[in-house]
Design a protein that fits this description.
disordered C terminus; 30% strand; six-stranded mixed β-sheet; single chain
Length: 283
């Protein structure tokens, strides 16, 4: 039953999306959603002086602009806003939220750093070093990565620099079941005591990706030096399988970057939940 389900799941994913009828393209995905984006690129200088350090905020926020189901559109945008900017922005319209977030970021930067900069500047600290330590940057970019039938995957990329040696960046994913208007969690996808078996599959795939035959070999490469390898809720679904995404420092040092491990549905057939899979994939 499990193997049959996985084969059906893959077929449904591959066949879903845009279907053609009488020469016209018809969106058969749930809600026939259309998307747009709001873009911001603004700089705020300390004391309003362009010769002094500044902060730069860049936003590219993707949101649902049209749908045959207004409730679906509005609910999705609530999730998108919360995931990108925080719960305090989730009740606002996309344009209002982006504007307020941008203004708050610049306002907080000026309020927090102007007193410190004035003190350091008065003490004749090295100006080059001051510029480096007081120059801030924040980027938030999102897009719809996958949208077929009742499954939508939304990706958010963060990038922030607050002085120091280097910035920090990370990516997060929101897998939405459009039928229930709720995020998909690991406990929805898998059944029973799945975590240990899933961890073994992750290790096996990580070894295969790195052409290693033992866990020790990949550990010597740097993997798991900063954290244990275990299933993470930061994953995304596709027609190929489930990709588990580990940001910098989670299981490997900064220099190695983020780590992605994709497990095909077929090798997880004994762990997958029939009920949730059918709920998400069926039209």
């Amino acid at each position: 039953m499990k193997k049959q389900y996985v084969s059906l799941l893959v077929i449904l994913l591959a066949a879903s999306g845009f279907l053609f009828s009488c020469g016209n393209t018809v969106n058969k995905n749930a809600g026939a959603l259309e998307f747009d984006s709001i873009q911001v690129n603004e700089v705020g200088h300390l004391f309003g002086d362009t010769a002094k350090p500044s902060c730069n905020i860049i936003i590219n926020f993707a949101y649902a602009s049209k749908s045959t189901d207004e409730k679906l559109r509005d609910s999705l945008n609530t999730y998108f806003l919360s995931a990108c900017f925080g719960d305090k922005y989730m009740t606002l319209k996309p344009e209002e939220a982006v504007k307020l977030y941008k203004e708050t970021y610049i306002k907080d930067y000026l309020k927090d750093l102007e007193p410190m900069y004035a003190k350091d500047d008065a003490e004749k600290e090295d100006s080059t070093e001051l510029v480096a330590w007081y120059s801030y940057y924040k980027g938030i970019e999102s897009h719809v990565q996958f949208y077929k039938k009742h499954l939508l995957v939304y990706r958010i990329d963060y990038n922030e620099f607050t002085g120091g040696a280097h910035g920090v960046y990370m990516s997060t994913f929101l897998n939405m079941d459009l039928r229930t208007l709720s995020p998909v969690r690991l406990d929805d996808i898998f059944v029973g005591e799945y975590k240990e078996a899933l961890t073994d599959l992750l290790w096996n795939q990580l070894m295969a990706d790195n052409k290693a035959t033992t866990r020790q070999e990949v550990e010597e490469m740097g993997y798991t030096s900063t954290g244990d390898l275990e299933p993470t809720e930061n994953f995304y679904l596709s027609d190929k399988g489930i990709t588990f995404y580990y940001n910098i420092y989670e299981i490997a040092p900064y220099v190695m970057g983020p780590v992605e491990i994709t497990l095909p549905y077929e090798i997880m057939s004994h762990l997958l939940s029939d009920e949730k899979g059918v709920l998400i994939m069926n039209s």
